[in-house]
Amino acid sequence: MIVQDDDPRAFWQTLAMGRVSGVNLGAAVVEGWLDRAEFDRLVDRCSDCGRQDDCMHWLGQPQPWPRPAPDFCANATGLSMLSGG
Fold it and tell me: What pTM did the predictor assign?
């Protein structure tokens, strides 16, 4: 089970960005193809990026799913690799 980290906003935004990108990060950890340390690094990068408001705005836009994370996302490259993109 994945539990909320020290920065709840970054935790939930990381999960949401993964889902929009076509990756269920929670299931990836539970199923073992993404380890907890890797997931924590994704959340830490989100927490440190400083673009959370831009992220919330982007996530709230009505667009088709899945779609790649925006260029400003600190996890764009990692999510793209996880989604096979």
Answer: 0.88
